[in-house]
Amino acid sequence: MDSGSLEPTKTRDILASFIKGVHKSLRDKCSVSENADQIWKEHCQNKQLLDEYARSMKSLATEYWNLSDEEGKKQSRNNWTKEIILDYFRNEGIKNERTREKRKIENFIHFRLPNYEYSYPELDYKLNESITILDVGSCYNPMKDIKEFDILAVDLAPGDSSVLKCDFLSVQLSNKLEIENYVVKSLPKGTFDCIVFSMLLEYIPIKQQRLECSIKAYELLKTEGLLIIITPDSKHETANAAMIKSWRLALSLLGFSRITYSKLKHIHCMAFRKTPVELELWGKLTISSLNRNQEVSNLGDLMYIPQDLK
Ligand SMILES: C[S@@+](CC[C@H](N)C(=O)[O-])C[C@H]1O[C@@H](n2cnc3c(N)ncnc32)[C@H](O)[C@@H]1O
């Protein structure tokens, strides 16, 4: 795409609509096909399209999103992510969350399960010097200069030499990191302090696949590790509140506890921790607190995006 001689706002709009168009075309194809896995496979092999997407995304984010002034900094997904991760791992975040979670569980047991035997686990988080981060769908590795982070950046189509090629939907999970010719073949379970899905889930065309990504994140994180999810939305905070609530329910039922949520001008930002509370008990608490009258027959249905409904 050559848009070099156009006005900046025009170029920005062209890049943004190309990106949205790739997402839409994938969703449309999957919605009329019996074989969404095949559509996804074909998409992953379309090198020309993926490379153009990577160039467009990098250009949009680094040249056209104004992030240099004070307001821009406040609205930046990378600044939000950095602040939340550092607060959680380097300040009192883990300790505060344990206290909050313990209190929540104890209240729940007291009122709903008075005969239940339970003690909140003794925890001792082992953090290496750097915070290990798996940035899924990283594109150009936007957080690579943050010195506290040790980032494994992966993408279908790397937009920077520091990013390894990997389809998160099909990559194997095992007990070690395996890389062949800059392609990730397998990721180690239970080893990451933090996983970042920054503007990833709305690219994934099917609700069930979004759930699969979330399940993989759960398996790859250490207990008490963080999952950061950023998803674009320029509407008012309340416009898609039902979707945000629905994702929270799905992720809670997987064993995540939401620790914070912010609506910035163009994005929703969420951080979840992998709770150390046993899943059966956590599920009961989730159903009682978040799911008062909703029937959940398929967790995948909860991971919808507004575009699925169009
Ligand atoms: C909208 S871009 C976001 C880039 C970056 N995270 C950011 O915040 O600027 C979405 C990225 O997710 C990548 N992606 C989508 N599905 C993926 C998958 N299954 N595995 C790895 N990367 C994926 C795309 O190639 C694309 O680079």
UniProtKB/TrEMBL annotation:
The enzyme's E.C. designation:
2.1.1.-
Q: What class of enzyme is it?
A: transferase
A GO MF term = methyltransferase activity
* Residues in the signal sequence: none
Q: Which residues cross the membrane?
A: none
Q: Which Gene3D superfamilies match?
A: Vaccinia Virus protein VP39
Pfam family of the protein (one) = Bmt2
Keyword presence, Methyltransferase = yes
In Gene Ontology terms, what is a biological process of this protein? methylation
Q: Where, in this chain's numbering, is S-adenosyl-L-methionine bound?
A: 137, 155
Mind listing the UniProt keywords for this protein, alphabetically?
Answer: Methyltransferase, S-adenosyl-L-methionine, Transferase
Look up the domain of life of the source: Eukaryota
Q: Record's family?
A: Belongs to the BMT2 family.
Task: State what this protein does.
Answer: S-adenosyl-L-methionine-binding protein that acts as an inhibitor of mTORC1 signaling. Acts as a sensor of S-adenosyl-L-methionine to signal methionine sufficiency to mTORC1. Probably also acts as a S-adenosyl-L-methionine-dependent methyltransferase.
> What is the name attached to this protein's record?
S-adenosylmethionine sensor upstream of mTORC1
Give the species this sequence originates from: Artemia franciscana
